[in-house]
Structures are given as C-alpha cells and as structure tokens.
Model the fold of this input.
Amino acid sequence: MSLKDSQEAVSEYLAQQGPLATAAAFGQQHTSISVYSATTVVRAPEAVVRGRWSPAVDGFVGEELLLNHRRSGRDLGMQLGVSRYYGHDAVTSSAHSELRERQDRAIALPQHRRLKGGLTSIVTERRSGRQFSGRACSLDELATVVWHGQGVTGSLPVPTAQDAGAAVSLRTVASGGGLYPVRLVVLAQHVKGLAPGAYEYQPHSHTLYPLQRTPTPVDLARHLWTADLEVDKVAFTLVYVYDLYVNSQKYGDSGLVFALLEVGGMSQNIHLARTALGMIACDQGGYDKQKLEKTLGFDGTSRHVVHFTLVGHGEA
Ligand SMILES: Cc1cc2nc3c(=O)[nH]c(=O)nc-3n(C[C@H](O)[C@H](O)[C@H](O)COP(=O)(O)O)c2cc1C
Done:
C-alpha cells in the first residue's frame, strides 16, 4: 500500500467516525507538546501550551522541572540533603516543630467532630459545588474541615543521644520526610464566632493565628478568574501555602513535587470532611498567584500560594 493509499484510507475511515476525527484533530493541534516541537514539522501551539507568546521569553516551567528532576541514586545533592537530616539538630528541629506556632494571639478551635458515614459513600457523594448560599458555617464546622486536612493524629519516636524522648508529630495526611512544608491559611468570611479575616491554621495547638493582611471578598473576587462563583457567599476559603525551604533543603527539586502531592492529600481530606458535613466546596486553579501572595503578605519566593479551595453551604 502506498503512502497516498494509506492516507486516503485513514481519511475515509475518519470521515465515517465524526467525533473521532474531531477529537484526533484537537489532539494534534493542542496536545502535541515536546521539547523538540520548535524543530519538528508539526508545531505545538506554544502560546496555548506554555502560556507565553514566545518561547524565547520564558520556558515551560513544568517541563523544565520534569527534565531536571533527578530521581536517581547518583544524585549526590539529594543524598547529601537527606543524610543531613539524620543529624541531631535536624531531628530536634523536626521533633519540636510546634515551637514555630505562635500562641500570643492564637484563637482556640473547638475539637473536630468525629464524622459519620461510610468512606465509600462519602467518596461517591463528593462533588464540586459552586452555588454558595451565603449561609454562615459554625466554628465547629470550620475546625472539623481544617483538622481533617492537617490535624495532628499521632507521633513517631525519634530518640537521639541528646534527647531520648524526641518524637515527630504526625498528621492526617502523609508528608515527605514528615516535614509538612504546606500551611493552610483560612480566609474567613461567614463563620459564626470568628471575625472575618485571614488566619493561619496551627495544627499542633489546633488554633488559628490572625495574619496581618486580610483580603476582603472584593480583593478575593478580583484575584479569581472564575465567573460562575459568588465569592462573597463563601463561608471560608482555604489557601495552601508552600514553604519552599522547609523540604527543598532536604529534597532539592523533589521538594516541590512532594509538596504538591501533600496538597492533593490535604484537599481530598478537606473535600471528604465537608461532604460528610453537608457543605459544598470548589477548588480553584484560576487565580492570580502574584497578586494573591502580595495581598496576603507572602514574598512569593520562599512562600508560595499553590492551591485554593472555597468552602461553604449550598442553596437548601
Ligand atoms: C487543581 C484543581 C483546580 C480546579 N480549578 C477550578 C476552577 O478554577 N474553577 C472551577 O470552577 N472548578 C475548578 N476545579 C474543580 C473541577 O472543575 C472539578 O473537580 C471537576 O470538574 C470534576 O468535578 P467534581 O469535582 O464535581 O467531581 C478544580 C479542581 C482541581 C483539582
């Protein structure tokens, strides 16, 4: 069969498979990304894939990370980083991470509720919801959601010669090396018994610590790209903030990957808890990272906003 024959045969076949032809055309135009795309005949639409007008201006950070992401036993940097964390000072610092929490103006949260409902039915019921009613939630509901996302649930003994009783606090979600580089910031809007504002959740003491900068619902709406959401009707927003140096000093580039995995675990627990509480929530990928970080007072260099979940009650 000549090339022409086979091309004709493929075209003829595709013509009979309406949706398949459309899907194949879309796939060719929009998903053929490769580091070699600039030099191959079929050019990827780089402005779409990379979000840049010109590849010369800036690279595709995700692609660069994966290409440089060394997960080999020969990665001396990572080996040195990991071995450094067996030292007494590193173990002591992990075992006393509660010292990073501030208690001077901390607000105690009620104990989390023990949620009922089978895991299978809650997982099946979980759905993103966008029709917020503006109804306030209780402090107890907020406490239950954040505790399921990040609460302390156990401890791992890590005795050293200098500190026989040292133990690392463990949480509801797994974290590479037990370092917990992701913090939850709560932007409270309609929470009974809690003044609207920005707070950091402190898992060890199960408290909220008020942050100095507090975005208003108007600020928040300005930084979100979602048109189908009434941000002022959300009870509270959870912002996942990654402290780059907490785990990248140990894991290098893998630190970011580990942190994003942790965010996924946290957000799933958060969604399952709010589902069991009869609340709705929606994750947000469309937001202005730089502006949001500026509004919250994060430098965007060592502390990064990496995810966002809106939580509240839906229409009855
Ligand atoms: C990382 C991430 C980002 C998301 N960003 C948005 C968003 O910006 N706007 C939105 O309406 N939904 C967003 N969602 C929700 C998805 O649209 C939703 O999960 C998907 O349509 C599947 O529906 P389900 O969650 O109801 O199962 C996001 C979800 C994730 C995990």
Observations:
- The CA atoms of residues 182 and 242 lie 4 Å apart.
- Residues 127-128, 130, 226, 282-286 surround flavin mononucleotide (CB under 6 Å).
- The radius of gyration is 24 Å.
- The chain is about 40% helix and 15% strand.
